[in-house]
Amino acid sequence: MSTATATPASLDRHQLFIGGAWTAPAGDERFEVVNPATEEVVATVPRPTAADADKAVAAAKAAFESAAWRDLDQNGRADLLDRILAELEGRVDRLAELATLETGAPVAMSGALTQVGLIVIREYAKLARAYSFAETREALGGPVRVTEEPVGVSLGITPWNAPLGALAFMLAPALAAGCPIVLKPAHEAPLTMYELGDALAAAGVPEGLVSVLPGDRELGEHLVTHPDVDKIALTGSTVAGRRVGALAAERMARVTLELGGKSPAIVCEDADLDATVPVLRAGGLGLSGQVCFALTRILVPASLHDEVVERLAASMAAMKVGDPTDPATDLGPLTLERQRDRVESYIAVGREEGARVVTGGGRPAGLDRGWFVEPTLFDRVERSMRIAQEEIFGPVLAVLAYDDLEDAIAIANDSDYGLYASVFTTDAERAAHVARRVRAGQVHLNGFGGCTGQPFGGFKCSGVGRKGGPEGLGAYLETKLIEDHGGAR
Q1: What are the residues facing 478 on neighbouring strands?
Q2: What are the pLDDT digits (tens) for 320-332?
Q3: Catalytic choice (188, 258, 344, 374)
Q4: Residue 473 is inside which H or E element, if any?
Q5: Fewer Cβ within 10 Å of end Cβ, the chain: N or C?
Q6: Which of 308, 319, 309, 310 is nearest to 282 (CA)?
Q7: Is the entire prediction scored with pTM above 0.90?
Q8: Catalytic one of 292, 344, 391, 461
Q9: Per residue in 7-25, pLDDT tens?
């Protein structure tokens, strides 16, 4: 954080997007935006205060209570999403460029994550038109009307690793359901969010409906405890989820928590390794491993152990680590210096616990600036080790050997997390068996990737509720029953 005057860079911003309009901030403190590949300050932006947050919530509450928004039907809400989508589609290259600058993600990855956000908004525009918000049912006393109504003022808190992609899962269903929303993205990656604010303004978002306040943990806690916030959605760490869940429970605010993971990749004896190893590399190391559902535990049978380790190590060692603006780069830096330090501490822990570093384990040669870590592969990992149990959130993979398929399932489920899993086999029956037995919110067979139009979330400490699909829309709705006992005319 900085109180200095703004840098000369054209990326500096001086206002906050509050209630659908650009507004002067209440305070004069500013955040510095640092390029993780160069460690240089590339911009400064305002630090939102509690007063700014209160103004945003008040604007959202007024919008929720206004006839202009309350009486807008589902087609009108879908039209708004279409306008927002059109504005963002015209800014795709700029959004990806800014994401690479502030997160260090390679340009191809930034482009893909930007497209995820657009897909989510497009899907919710369609769903808003098709969804049945009311139905008549037969009850003992006669017909009853069951309606689903917007839950109220919503809050969306997102991390720094996928700015637009993560935020779209909150913005789109909230608006489709009829809820105003205050968005609190991470202050470490605010530039993409400012571009979103420009798009929202250009799309003609109704007064009060959306605010975007890139802020810190203090601002987040203020918003979470605000009495006029009815619904909270968080994508973040399990530690953050526990805190938000506890604070929300004090006043029974509704929550959706999409949290951490330690996702297993179960490689079966009949797996096609030519197809499997590239997926293991991409699924474990995309975005430098800063993905909640990254495949970081590689479970292999004894018969394939040496071959999988050799192939995967060679594939990882061949990755180009460096400048994220270079299209040839496979792996950029970690987004934050503290995250680089965390990853390095886990690599040290792995060594201390007796695991073997097969490849990587340090900082790349020749990269003296930037928060880079080599893609690192551990072998001889036991399921009780910290590197097999705790979310590292970096380019670190662990290979665990198993005896038979039941042992593999037991190892996969031996985790506090349950967000995601992949199974690699050419036997459809075996694939279905493992998918049923693994306790995870999503299980992918012979592949890796997100289903943006379908429910995403986790078992156990990986979260509460689902984002995406009709389930994600339902998280912003309350159910009401209306029964006529004969007096109404």
Answers
A1: 149
A2: 999 999 999 999 9
A3: 258
A4: helix 469-474
A5: C
A6: 319
A7: yes
A8: 292
A9: 444 899 999 999 999 999 9
